[in-house]
Amino acid sequence: MEAGHWKAPAALVASGAVGATRPAVELREVSRRYGRGRQAVRALDGISEQFPAGTFTAIMGPSGSGKSTLIQCAAGLDKPSSGKVMLGDIELSRLREPKLTKVRRRHIGFIFQAFNLLPALTARQNIVLPMELDNRPVDRDFFETITRRVGIEGVLERRPAELSGGQQQRVAIARALLPRPRVVFADEPTGALDVRTARSVMQLLRASVDELGQTLVMVTHDPAAAAYADRVLMLVDGRTVDELLWPDASTVASRLARLEG
Fold first, then answer.
1. Strand pairing class (23-34; 41-52)
2. Rounded to an integer, what distance in angstroms lies between the CA atom of residue 190 and that of residue 222?
3. In whole angstroms, what is the distance from residue 178 CA to residue 173 CA?
4. How far from 230 is each of 152, 172, 246, CA to CA, in Å?
5. Share of the chain above pLDDT 90, in %
6. Cβ proximity of 244 and 252 under 8 Å
7. DSSP characters for 24-64?
8. Which residues of 66-86 are buried (b: 16+ CB within 10 A; e: fewer)?
9. What is the pLDDT of residue 11?
10. What's the whole-model pTM score?
11. Of 6, 58, 166, 209, which is most buried by a Cβ count within 10 Å?
12. Whether the Cβ atoms of residue 53 and residue 15 lie closer than 8 Å to each other
């Protein structure tokens, strides 16, 4: 599957607009400040955005624009200074840490740029770890489907040090998808990969939306990666300044260059 040649979700075809479907995650006037007084840094500045269920959104912008802070707040990994973060009907921004941890394990997947695999565990053990921590049984059929789809069924007994960077990223993707979360967040998932492996990873993420019905929100600096999304949000200084629907790589690159210029 190449970028630009995927089957759009039926809800988007019917509505003609991404925003017409029910949001899986919603940010309402979210701000995030670090520090105090004159040294304070405002990473997010009253941002309001919806991420519709069953869609793929890419987030882009210049360095320091608030991209990673946005998905960390949206995923419950960071708390906003003000505003609300809604996961369906759950207000993440009000939950205390024990409850928030349970909600994240059950409903949120996160793919880190650095993979964050535990070195002492095999690939198989890393993938099922979130399910075990949540005391949930692993659906073996779905496990086999996911690991086969991401192409790691032959390396499941190896530890991370025995895997290539692309294989480690695939393990991280399988770990995020196995619990069937409401939404998957990805922070620069292709940043450490070569061009060929990056293309394969993006095809897998696109398929997770089209074939598994996932909601995917991805931070990226790569226009080619962003072209796999249903829409692209452009951030500057913690605010959304542009939105592209049905993006292609050249248009994304042009808009991004204009912002960075």
1. antiparallel
2. 8
3. 9
4. 27, 23, 5
5. 66
6. yes
7. EEEEEEEEEEESSGGG-EEEEEEEEEEEETT-EEEEE-STT
8. bbbbbbbbbbbbbebbebebb
9. 41
10. 0.86
11. 58
12. no
SS3 231: strand
Distance CA(66)–CA(109), nearest Å, equals 20
What single string gives the DSSP state of each residue in 90-152? Answer: EEGGG--HHHHHHHHHHHEEEE-TT----TTS-HHHHHHHHHHHTT----HHHHHHHHHHTT-
Which conformational region is residue 124 in: left (phi greater than 0), alpha (psi within -120 to 50 degrees), or beta?
A: alpha
**76 phi/psi in degrees, rounded to 5:** 80, 15
DSSP run (H or E) holding 162 = none
CATH topology of domain 39-260: Rossmann fold (3.40.50)
Rg (CA), the chain: 18
Q: What is the pLDDT of residues 132-191, one digit of tens each?
A: 998 999 999 999 988 988 889 999 999 999 999 889 988 998 999 899 898 999 999 888
DSSP state of 82: E
